[in-house]
Amino acid sequence: MAVLEIAGVAQTFGAGEQAVQALKPTTLSVEAGELVALLGPSGSGKSTLLLAISLIQPPTAGRIAVGGRVLFDDGPTGVDARAFRRSQVGFIFQQHNLIPFLTALENVALMLQLNGVGRRESARRAREVMDYLEIGHRAASLPARMSGGEQQRVAIARALANQPALVLADEPTAALDTERGTRVMAMLRRIAREKGSAVITVTHDHRMIEGFDTVYHLEDGRLARVERRPGGDLAPTRVPPDGATR
Amino acid sequence: MELALKDIRRHVGKFLATIAGVAMLLAIVLVMNGIYQGNLQDGVWLIDSIDADLWVVERGRGGPFNESSRIPLDTYRSVAATPGVARASPLALYTAQRELGGREQQFTLVGYDVFGGAGGPTRLAEGRGLRVPHYEMVADRKLGLRLGEQVALGSDRYTVVGLTAGAVDSGGNPLVYLSLPDAQKVQFEQDKRAITAGNASNQKRLERAGVTGEAAARLLPLLAAGGSTINAVLVELAPGADGAAVAQHVRDWLYLNVYTTEEERRLMIEGRLSRMSAVLGLFRGLLVIVSIVIIALIVYVLTIEKIRSIATLKLIGAPNALIVRLIVTQALLLTLASFALAWLLREAIAPGFPRTLGFLAHETAITFAVMLAGGVLASLMAVWHALRTPAQLALGG
Fold it and tell me: Does A157 fall in a domain?
């Protein structure tokens, strides 16, 4: 079942002669439990696509549906973007972006409390996710007192706390060394497999995408090609001119 | 989860230091309130405390407080003889700066008829009032004198027989009560050289007028500066007497000015006190504005420091209400805690403050409400900035 379906999603900044099309019409879908990488050089439109999917920066055209619910159809559909993000999306950032004045546990529990879970229950569930990611022993620590890898694991725990259908990760390994980066990617694979979340990761590092199910290559704002790897074998696929991949 | 409290917990030292700084500023606002009210209270206290039915002063003058008024001592007898007057008491007022209690101090001498005249000491805190016509004094505690202490004023020494608390003139200077003759002596007494110089000058004037020899010698004492003047006569009306009629009689027949206590108060409030009150009021207003601006800037800076966290909150879907609450709660806590500390500071400062501080509960409440409203309004600037912050800021641009 497709968790995410986007069709003809495009992003243009500015207007008239100064208009810049940062993302050309793009169509793709992501299944539950699928691990997807958006790969491409800087300025290729990866983050723009991520921002569009999450409605942080809604696209100028196209259609976005998550879990069968249409969020955007050439314009807002009346869906509360923030309510959608806090209930359906888990975010993982390059710089971890933990709230510095909250402990690791509070950072994770916050996500649950935003969705109306009570204080005690949110703490219990947050602890559970942290233990799952083997970071439970740092529950009482403030972010500033944790290593980059630990912070990233707490950030992943926060993203997963609400069991989102969609996990969006923006360069999650960029601030980590190769060893830690590899571990984080392994963790994302595990999440996709065990939790059934669709995971979309933006990266420009080819070394980090081992084991990904699908890799979308973006160049100059367009989907250039897609590689699928059923069972770990990357098979290049040509992308038609309209950017449709499925 | 109360994010505001969590943030404060994380930066408790910084938050307390900020509270201390703002509290000092607010304490100045509160003390300024006290100075403002104290100025008004001091300004009319002596008038209220004497509480005469009528004040008789020099013709054409607004005395005895706002303008000098000098009338002959005997005038009070003429006033006493006016129909409708039950009692007329002479009063001398004189602001002096002399060495008292080992230091130069400014004070106001009040001379009154110790044998039943009006104008004597009130607010007596220790000792007793004056009982004998000479060499006793009642002084305010502000002067630092002790009961039984011998104090030199002019050529005589006076024994402190009573101490008042808060007996001050319109400028906040402490009062010293003396018998009328003693007060006049302190006021008009000249040293020998001044008397000699004055006599020489008068003798020359007499010679120019053709008066010489024995005749001049007889006239000289009459020309010397006399000490038998007073500044006002305090009138107590007879029961049922018409104050206006008595006042008119005094004006018509004795050629003096007459004011009721209410008129004296008005003269004081609209005259001497008005400019001072305006200045103090202006400073008070400016301080309130400055305090609100400073609170606004602090709240704004506190918000800017958290702007990336706020962007992250927006990105993960936190509603605006949560972000607004984070900022407004901190602004309120800052204002409330600062005001509470400022109030404690005010209470600590007040007893040793050199001027009378008048604290009115409703004025303190209004100041609190203004600061609270100001704090909330001030936080709106930070709220506006936070709500305009794009969620993408969390992604690094």
Answer: no
